[in-house]
């Protein structure tokens, strides 16, 4: 985290930044970014500010640049009707509310119902407060719960009339649950064992 913040400071030296820009937040949002990625991020933000006739790069441009890298550009050509917008809004609010009220989850930073990239109709962004390399069973279980919060909100608000909007959430939750049991040995019934692992590959095959 400190390294990314330092790299961002280097790349923004020749860029006019708005006084409200907080590079610590940008560093928190860019876990896994390389130095080149961060340089491209700053350049993209500067170009966005120029297109918008701004005299300084603001948090809006920096955040927009990250969103483009992670979720793809805004799909302005995709017109969503009001009923679907309402459903997406409640879905994302479900994620946010569950994340807000559960312990051991990252704080909610941003909620969007703007379509991006190929399939994202909206998203709820949680930001880690620090770089993490381990996860506890409780943290993983809570993350699964947050992922299913969107579907739960739809069930409550729309009288159990669910939609396909939770497909990616369910895929991620299933993957987490599978890893908890089969890789991390976190199942009380099956115990601390690894399941489904094939033998390691060697030069001439398995």
Assess the beta-strand content as a share of residues.
under 5%
- Please work out how many helical segments DSSP would assign: 7
Classify the helix fraction into a percent range: 40-55%
Distance between the termini: 39 Å
Mean pLDDT value: 88
Largest sheet: spatial strand order: 1-2
How would a crystallographer describe the biggest sheet? 2 strands, antiparallel
Extract low-pLDDT stretches. Answer: none
- Basic shape: globular
Write the SSE topology.
Blueprint: H1 2-11, H2 23-29, H3 35-51, H4 59-71, H5 82-101, E1 108-112, E2 123-126, H6 137-157, H7 167-182
Antiparallel strand pairs: 1-2
Helix pairs in contact: 1-2, 1-3, 3-4, 5-6, 6-7
């Amino acid at each position: 985290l400190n390294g990314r913040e330092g790299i961002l400071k280097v790349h923004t030296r020749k860029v006019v930044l708005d006084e409200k820009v907080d590079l610590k937040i940008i560093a928190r949002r860019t876990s896994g970014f390389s130095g080149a990625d961060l340089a491209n991020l700053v350049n993209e933000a500067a170009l966005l500010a120029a297109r918008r006739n701004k005299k300084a790069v603001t948090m809006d441009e920096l955040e927009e640049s990250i969103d483009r890298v992670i979720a793809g550009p805004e799909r302005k050509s995709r017109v969503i009707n009001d009923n679907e917008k309402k459903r997406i809004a409640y879905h994302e609010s479900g994620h946010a509310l569950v994340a807000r009220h559960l312990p051991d989850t990252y704080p909610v930073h941003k909620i969007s119902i703007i379509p991006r990239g190929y399939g994202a109709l909206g998203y709820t962004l949680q930001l880690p407060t620090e770089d993490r390399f381990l996860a506890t069973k409780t943290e993983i279980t809570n993350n699964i719960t947050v992922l299913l919060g969107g579907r739960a909100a739809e069930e409550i608000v729309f009288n159990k009339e669910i939609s396909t909007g939770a497909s990616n959430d369910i895929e991620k939750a299933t993957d987490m649950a599978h890893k908890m049991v089969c890789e991390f040995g976190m199942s009380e019934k099956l115990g601390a064992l690894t399941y489904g692992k094939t033998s390691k590959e060697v030069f001439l095959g398995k």
